TrEMBL record, chains A, B, C:
Organism: Paraconexibacter sp. AEG42_29
Name of the molecule in the record: YjbQ family protein
Family: Belongs to the UPF0047 family.
One Pfam family recorded for the sequence: YjbQ
InterPro entries reported in the protein's UniProt record: UPF0047_YjbQ-like, YjbQ-like_sf
């Protein structure tokens, strides 16, 4: 089976956010897939997706602190017209990546015990974010 | 349907380059896919692929400036036999990644308005780069 | 055909390790795939997967040196309960990524001459690591 759907993730402040539930709730048809893959594309260049710890919120705080230190607003940027948070957001988006593919098994994504899907919002006011979900699998 | 093809991307100078058109022109059969996935593997360890802004060329300039600052040639490298640009190129390749998967819909890749495919050339003289394209989709 | 299997990668010390052989030996059924995709998910948030040079071991040493400099243990981390190597490991895991998709052709993964699969072990004592392998392909 193939299934594809665009969803809108609600606006979030700059930082790293756990969105596993919001994503999976949008594709209940996953429940019929015996084995397959779920692909996620975030349709933006100033936000990103990654897998990381789903437990301690400190991890998400530290991810944000580190990425701001590694890709600072105070740098020799030439692309500054869209604000000081814009060009760093582009770099961070490529560092983390705007796509993610997860295995599916028995109607659920396969993830480690501590793994969750992060939306990494790199803009101060990114607004809602469009995510394209594609499911391919064996539903026999 | 499954389709797989190796293509050669023409040589580009060190930096970030928009290659969306060159890639898609190489797989016109995409036009028959109703829903599916397009996978890209760059067969190299000193260049990479990423999605980022397809509009302002400044973004591509700033990506290059940042990545050179983050992974400088002047560092405690031990692997220096192939030149000062070689080991930084390996690190940059893993930071950005040599693979990319995009959703397909109604004969075209799904991308955000501002998203394009970047070839990130991390060597001074990388030469042509081999890209393996794999299409899987429903062409019913 | 669809095939999915969890395997356990043997424990390795902190650093970058070539695991191409160990991974491929675990899915001999690949030999029947004419064209397809192999997806890898590492079920952990303190280790990662990447493609990089399969030849000189110096490259793997330098990758480790660089990533330790870029994501140092001595940083303003708040998440420190699990040891000084833990929070840097989370950041490194998202930088490299916990998933990888490779094309398959004529019973083998398509990789460049110099490309191999790296397990990036970011903990001092990470132990065995669980990897979920998913194969999708045309075995006609």
């Amino acid at each position: 089976m193939w299934l594809q759907r665009d969803i809108s993730l609600r606006p979030r402040p700059r930082g790293f956010h756990l969105v596993t539930g919001e994503v999976l709730d949008a594709v209940p048809e996953l429940g019929h897939v015996r084995v397959g893959l779920l692909h996620l594309l975030l349709q933006h260049t100033s936000a990103s997706l990654t897998l990381n710890e789903n437990a301690s919120p400190d991890v998400r705080v530290d991810m944000e602190t580190w990425v701001n230190a590694a890709v600072p607003e105070g740098f020799a940027w030439t692309h500054t017209l869209e604000g000081p948070d814009d060009m760093p957001a582009h770099v961070k988006s490529s560092l983390m990546g705007a796509t993610l593919t997860l295995p599916l098994r028995d109607g659920r994504p396969v993830l480690g015990t501590w793994q969750g899907i992060y939306l990494c919002e790199h803009r101060d006011h990114g607004g809602p974010r469009t995510l394209t979900l594609t499911v391919n699998g064996d539903d026999a």
